[in-house]
């Protein structure tokens, strides 16, 4: 499920043949300390950043408004 440093376009190409709800996690193109979650939906693809906040004990935040998590399961 983790694909390392690939682009948004590459993520979409990987997900395209799979069913709705399929996803992958990749290293963020804009900040290599963060990740991006790419999901195939009925309307195309959704890409959300997973921010790694080292200053808060290494918490992760999905998108802009989520609760912080201690790990990515």
From TrEMBL:
The cross-references to InterPro entries, in alphabetical order and at most eight, read: SH2 (IPR000980), SH2_dom_sf (IPR036860), SH2_domain_adapters (IPR051846)
Per the record, the coiled-coil ranges are none
Per the UniProt record, one Pfam family is SH2
Signal sequence extent: none
Q: Does the keyword Membrane apply?
A: no
Do the record's keywords include Cell inner membrane? no
- What keywords tag this UniProt record? SH2 domain
Q: Which residue numbers delimit the SH2 domain?
A: 1-73
Give the SUPFAM superfamilies listed for this entry. Answer: SH2 domain
State the protein's name: SH2 domain-containing protein
Provenance organism? Helobdella robusta
Top-level taxonomy? Eukaryota, Metazoa, Spiralia, Lophotrochozoa, Annelida
